[in-house]
Amino acid sequence: MRASVHPGKRTVFAPTDDAFAALGLDATTVGALDVGFLTDVLTYHVARGERLAADVVSSERIRSLQGGFFFPSEEATITDAMGRTANILVTDVTARNGVIHVIDAVILPYAP
Q: Which fold is adopted by the domain 10-103?
């Protein structure tokens, strides 16, 4: 399936607070990260177009705004460029400018 093409529409794969905490990140520690790396990680969680869950799990790969790819599966998981897996916990949370899917891990485009 192909993501709908609407100017400005985006799909966000939003990690839970626990996912950030597993990496030792919270509001008090995130500022210690390299800004370039943080920007790449955050934009790696966003894709152009509005991709509902059916579009996501039927895709072989999804290009992120960061430019890299991540790889969804029909089992409602995402594998990042590092080979790490995140489970999709909540799907199809609609927003005015797209859709949000909640995931249980922070996906990474490359090693920090």
A: FAS1 domain (2.30.180)
Q: What is the DSSP string of the chain?
A: ---B--TT-EEEEEE-HHHHHHTT-STTTGGGS-HHHHHHHHHHTEEESB--HHHHHT-S-EE-TTS-EEEE-TTSEEE-TTS-EEEEEEEEEEETTEEEEEESS---SS--
Question: pLDDT tens digit string along 85-106?
Answer: 999 999 999 999 999 999 999 9
Tens digits of residue pLDDT in 9-36: 999 999 999 999 998 888 888 888 899 9
Q: How far apart are CA 68 and CA 44, in angstroms?
A: 7
Torsion of CA 112, 86, 22, 102, to 10 degrees: 110
Around Cβ 76, how many Cβ atoms within 10 Å?
16
Q: Where are the domains of the chain?
A: 10-103
